[in-house]
Structure prediction request, 407 residues.
Amino acid sequence: MAKRNIGALLFNSKVVSVFLAVLLWVYVVGVRGPDTTKSVEAQVIAVNVPQGYVLAGTLPTVTVTLGGPMNTLWNVTGGYVTPTVDLRGRSEGSFIASVQAQVAGLTGVTVEAVTPKEVNVQLERLETITVPVHAEVSGTLPASLVLGTIRIEPESIEVSGPGSLVGQVREAALVVALDKLGTTAGGNLTVAGDVVAYDAMGNSVEGVLLSPGSVVAILPILDTATLKTVPVTPSITGHPMGGYAVASSSCTPAIVMVTGTSAMLSQIQTISTTSVDVSDDSGILTKQVELILPPGVSLVSGSKAVSCRVVIEQVIVLAIPDVQIEVRGAGLGWKISLGTTSASVLISGTNSAVMALKSSQIKAYVDVSEPPLADGSYAVSVDGLVQGVVSATVTPSSVEADVQKGS
Prediction:
């Protein structure tokens, strides 16, 4: 009887074991699923980058093969996987680094393989420079409006990154499309946007960090009725070296556009500069000076700083004989008889000015509409002179004239 009970007990234990095994199989197949593999793509990231260094470019994407329960791997993406290269102790240069991969948040999942196992890494020194920012404007405004001088805030930004890339950057720009500003009217318009780094050829430079990454452009929109274009006149002071004189002077830009009230603009014919001192100079002189703007008048665009070029040449003398004396200022029906009808003109001036003169340009004349001199004669004057002529002496300096005015 005892043997039968022990047999029954053993029989029941076997049944229970089988039953538990079945339950485990059902769990594995139905809940956990059978073990399988799955490959996902993920970009390699660098860890333990040495201080003062930075990666040149981006690291590639690798294929990571995972192993684990089917039901777990079913919806797994590359976001669960982190492939890394450890740069601890590395220095500047190009080298091959091994890729290690980790899985986060997935129970029972392991990394089976990484392809490729190694990647090329370019490590460079981290450099930072400061470059100016300008507005790169495209499009047009309505015909009645004009764009003034754009102000950028901030005027410069920092550029950081690999030395090979940072060294290419010369400036940064905010692109402003006037056609996309919508309806515009007079006044200041504020535009904010991201900046782009450019090299010396005007090509954009990628792979650098810009700080700040965005700037603000303040665009003055002006009505053409309040604008005027006027020439720039350099203000020359001092005396050149002995025997020399100013042959010519000019500024760059030669003309500027200014804005102000209609009353103020009507009084402005030219804009002068601060003094260009030519004391004891000769040859070609180039100086940076500033425009002198009247109160209430401002530039539409550009800087107040201009470049003035002054040419100083040696003075020479040219004698022009037998210049016909003309009569000017005579009224209708007047009869004029001159005691002398020709004169000699002695011209002193810079070499280029005097040599460029033609005899036909020089005119000697008397103006009989003016009162005669104390002795009754009329002064002989000269015109047709150009810049660079220092003096013109006419002989005789006066002539007798019989003036009979008509009735």
